[in-house]
Design a protein that fits this description.
- The complex is a heterodimer of chains A (143) and B (432).
- Chain A contains 3 helices and 9 strands, in the order αβαβαβββββββ.
- In chain A, strand 7 and strand 8 form a beta hairpin.
- The radius of gyration of chain A is 25 Å and the shape is elongated.
- Chain B is an alpha+beta fold and 432 residues long.
- Chain B folds into 3 domains: 82 residues; 55 residues; 173 residues, Lipocalin.
- Helix content of chain B is 41%, strand content 25%.
- The longest helix of chain B is centred in the middle third of the chain and has 59 residues.
- The radius of gyration of chain B is 65 Å and the shape is rod-shaped.
- The relative contact order of chain B is 0.06.
- The chains are: A alpha+beta (143), B alpha+beta (432).
- At the A-B interface, helix 1, helix 3, strand 3, strand 4 and strand 5 of A face strand 4, strand 5, strand 11 and strand 14 of B.
Chain lengths: 143, 432
């Protein structure tokens, strides 16, 4: 193949290849980090589902304005303990302990005078929802 | 025959008035007839008078002519006597009453003298009287002085109250009523929202059937109580949320200068490049920085600095990323930096809590600093976090970045679109 033929083929193939490669530009609306949960098959949590150590994966709503991070230890004997890192300045931890229960509507009540929360689980996640936002926790193993 | 002397001398001293009365009655009765009486009537009258003489009294009817003057004298004497008697009775009564009053006092004093207890009581009463009189005498000037002082300052006090009233009216007139009304409406809405979202009172543990009773713990409820005593957050807790923690009240203010810190896990920066082969994006969340700004007055000397790890930019192609790091000289200049110098606002919507404008500053790439202006948008999410996004075109040769090219055919454009999508959280307040 003479050089002129090769050059002609190259000029013909390059534009064709350019058109075949799709753009990987991120759309403007997708630039921001999305905290939306992936699709999960959420179901109502049972008492057995709650037991364990949980750490925050996502926190939304008004609660997120005050709390930066949350961890719960939920025990099978009905007790629990929690630690929350409140926004500062400076950020400050608060801890508490008490008992948990389900109310008549099957909502989780952490302590006696807390607002009941809808508790759902899916794929090792625990989601608590209330009037002030939503908290998604992921199970963590004790070390 | 006239016998007047005999008549006077023979008048009895006994029932004198009775006779005279009877005599007056008979005289007045006879006088009614006057001079027209006939001789027969006069004779009858004389006969009637003669009947008085028949009872033995030496009354004679021979003195008819002198009867009125005698009666007059008699009446005068009787009147004088009556007057004397009345005066005497009055004097007697006055003297008698005065004597009795005197006697009564004498008796009281005598009794007091005779009873020691009463005497002591009387002495004590006298002392009390004296004290009361002294107290009244002492209070008199004081009360008078107080009255005078009040009277003297009443005008001054009224003037002061009037001045205060005028000042209050002026303050009320100058108050930003619409803002107050707006804040009140917002507070009411918030209160209504909280009231509407208020959860039902949780039932006691014993009466609460759990979805899975077998797994429901049966322990006595215990109030959640702090295990440790960490320092309280910035604001006092108001209520317990569904997270069991008490959330502080929302103190967010749009028109307040604060320092905002970039949340790397929720932020991303990148660039969009174009090549003859295909367009691509390089991005990273390895970004940090701070922004100090009053969103209500964004042009009021804002300050900001954003740093990006150049080596962390990811285009989705390892070979390309490696080539990119070489072109950016990431080892020698690990950070791409933008420093905010001023902000030119286009719109400031306090109600929607949104700001749009142009951020002017300096961009440093590969150790080369150039001026850069980037149109940006600023807003806040439900968690009171600031979102800041914008984009600007950067001419890579200006920063000494070699533009990749393959065989002179597959090449990248000199201009790339640099963009930011940051999320920041307020970290500190700043005055001014």
């Amino acid at each position: 193949m003479d050089p002129y033929t090769r050059a002609g083929l190259l000029l013909a193939v390059v534009p064709l290849g350019t058109g075949c490669l799709a753009s990987t530009v991120v759309a403007e609306d997708d630039r921001a980090v999305r905290t939306a949960e992936a699709e999960h098959a959420w179901r109502a949590a049972s008492a057995a589902d709650l037991v364990g150590l949980w750490r925050t994966r996502a926190l939304t709503g008004a609660a997120a304005a005050a709390i930066l991070d949350l961890s719960y230890w939920i025990s099978a004997d009905g007790r629990f303990s929690g630690a929350a890192l409140f926004a500062g300045p400076p950020p400050t931890y608060q801890v508490l302990a008490g008992t948990w229960r389900f109310d008549e509507q099957g909502r989780l009540v952490l302590g006696d005078d807390a607002e009941p929360a809808r508790a759902e689980v899916a794929d090792g996640l625990l989601r608590l929802s209330g009037s002030e936002g939503s908290l998604t926790l992921e199970r963590t193993e004790l070390r | 025959m006239a016998r007047p002397a005999v008549h006077r001398a023979c008048r009895p001293a006994g029932a004198r008035f009775a006779r005279e009365k009877r005599g007056y009655g008979g005289w007045f009765a006879s006088a009614g007839g006057g001079a027209k009486r006939s001789g027969v009537e006069k004779g009858n009258a004389r006969a009637a008078r003669s009947r008085y003489t028949s009872d033995g009294a030496r009354w004679r009817d021979t003195c008819n002519a002198t009867a009125p003057s005698r009666m007059k004298k008699l009446l005068t004497v009787a009147g004088a006597l009556a007057l004397l008697a009345w005066t005497g009775l009055g004097l007697f009564a006055w003297a008698n009453v005065g004597e009795r009053v005197h006697v009564t006092i004498e008796e009281g004093e005598a009794a007091a003298r005779t009873d020691p207890a009463l005497a002591a009581l009387a002495d004590e009463l006298a002392v009390l009287h004296a004290d009361v009189r002294a107290l009244a005498a002492a209070l008199g000037p004081n009360l008078q002085g107080l009255h005078d002082e009040l009277a003297a300052h009443v005008d001054e006090r009224a003037a002061a109250l009037e001045r205060e009233l005028v000042a209050l009216k002026a303050e009320l007139a100058a108050a930003p009523t619409p803002d107050v009304a707006h804040e009140l409406a917002a507070l009411r809405a918030e209160l209504a929202a909280h009231a509407g979202a208020a959860p039902a009172e949780p039932a006691p543990l014993a009466s609460a059937p759990a979805p899975e009773p077998a797994a429901t713990p049966e322990v006595a409820p215990v109030d959640p109580s702090p295990v440790a005593a960490p320092p309280a957050p910035a604001e006092p807790a108001k209520k317990k949320s569904f997270l069991a923690f008490q959330l502080p009240s929302d103190d967010f203010r749009f028109d307040e200068r604060r320092v905002w810190s970039v949340l790397p896990s929720l932020s991303r920066v990148g660039f969009d490049g174009k090549s003859t082969l295909h367009d691509f994006t390089g991005a990273t969340s390895r970004v940090e920085g701070e922004l100090e700004v009053d969103p209500g007055r964004p042009s009021a000397t804002p300050r900001g600095l954003v740093r990006v790890q150049a080596a962390a930019l990811d285009t989705g192609n390892a070979d390309r990323d490696a080539e990119m790091r070489e072109h950016l000289a990431a080892a020698a200049h690990p950070e791409i930096v933008f420093e905010l110098e001023r902000f030119e606002p286009a719109t400031v919507d306090a109600a929607a809590q949104k700001v749009a404008g142009t951020a002017h500053g300096k961009m440093t790439i590969r150790g080369v600093t150039r001026a850069l202006s980037m149109p940006v948008r600023l807003a806040f999410d439900e968690a009171r976090r600031m979102t800041l996004d914008g984009e600007a075109s950067v001419h890579l040769p200006d920063y000494g970045v070699p533009v990749p090219s393959k065989l002179g055919v597959i090449s990248m454009e000199d201009d790339v679109k640099v963009w930011i999508a940051l999320k920041l959280r307020a970290s500190a307040r700043k005055d001014g």
